[in-house]
Amino acid sequence: MEENKAPSVPYLYLYNDGRIKNTFPVRVVSSCNLNIYTFPFDIQNCSMTFNSYMYYALEIRVFLGRDPKTITELSKNLMATMGEWELVDISAQKLVNGDESGLYRDMLAFYIRVRRRATMYVVNLLLPSCFLITLDLFSFLLPPESTDRSSFKMTLILGYTVFLLIMNDLLPVTGNTIPLINVFFSLCLALMVASLLETILITNLLSNSSDFSPVPRWIRILVLNFLGCLVCMPQKTEKPTNPEQRKMSEVAERKSDEGLPGTEGPAEEEEALTELKSLSRVLQAIRCEVEQQQKGKQSSEEWIQVGFIIDRLLFGLYIIFISVSFITIIIVWINSYNQ
């Protein structure tokens, strides 16, 4: 207890049955442990006990002057002008504090429940954070190859960091547990950073995919097949080459290399045959070059599709996180007012 600054009242009420009523006002300063896990929708339970410090129950008996319901109503009228906290109820009971000798003291225990008014914290903390994370969600609608998308995300991260620094004084700094709202802010910032890194990755894939090696088999199975079907982006099927055309081209190449079997023509025919052979080699080189370009193009398209699948997957994670966050906030808010 601190120093009592209440005015002194030198009067006692004496009754003919031995009862003594003391109306001496006492200003008591008490403290209790805070459970701030559900901040700002938390309800705190504080207890206060009163008993005689020197006398046992044989000498002084202590009783409740009013029932707990009346005490709650009077206390709510007195706390009507308080700012952050709202009184829920007050319950009281009489306890017995005994010792080894069998003597005991009468003890009165008051259990006070107060609820934090969460409107200010919702308006100043939760709503701006939800607005910024929603803006980051809609930034996925921007084309990935545009540089405006990455700069927009960087601006959002900078604004969110400044917002957390400004509103840091509103967050609680004492308590046994980490508030759930701090976890929410950390997840929002982590998602924003992840979306920026993902945008950088997709921009790199779109710009330099032609220089990459072919997509590894495990990435093709995990990302293109499994995750692609999960986000409704199945892998594009390749057009099969006609086996008859392939067989005819192989036969023509074989004949051009072997020449006409068993015949020896004049010099003009040999010269024409030589030119045909050289022309066949040129066409074969052109064909190999075209096939390599097609393979490189196919590999580039696969890398680009990997980037789009990752982009859509993170977009889906954003939607799930925002939906779960809104539902959790509403449920915790409703439960705090139903208690």
Helical percent range?
40-55%
Structural class: alpha+beta
- As for the CATH topology of the largest domain, it is Methane Monooxygenase Hydroxylase, Chain G, domain 1
The H-and-E topology, N to C, reads as EEEHEEHHHHHH
Whole-number tally of structural domains = 2
Mean pLDDT: 78
Approximate strand percentage? 5-15%
Number of DSSP helices? 7
What distance separates the N and C termini? 31 Å
> Can you name the CATH architecture of the largest domain?
Up-down Bundle
Shape: rod-shaped
Number of strands: 5
Instruction: Summarize the main sheet.
Output: 3 strands, antiparallel
Radius of gyration: 40 Å
Give, in spatial order, the strands making up the sheet with the most strands.
3-5-4
Concise description?
This protein is an alpha+beta fold and 339 residues long. It is 54% helix and 12% strand.
Question: How would you sum up this structure, described in words?
Answer:
With 339 residues, the chain is of the alpha+beta class. It has two domains: 12-117, Acetylcholine Binding Protein, Chain: A (Distorted Sandwich); 121-236 and 307-338, Up-down Bundle (Methane Monooxygenase Hydroxylase, Chain G, domain 1), CATH 1.20.58. Helices cover 54% and strands 12% of the residues. The protein has helices at residues 68-78, 119-138, 147-166, 180-208, 217-230, 243-258, 267-338, and strands at residues 12-14, 20-22, 43-51, 85-98, 104-116. The strands form two sheets. A three-stranded antiparallel β-sheet has the order 3-5-4, with helices on one face. Helix 4 runs antiparallel to helix 7 (267-338). The longest helix is centred in the C-terminal third of the chain and has 72 residues, at 267-338. It is rod-shaped.
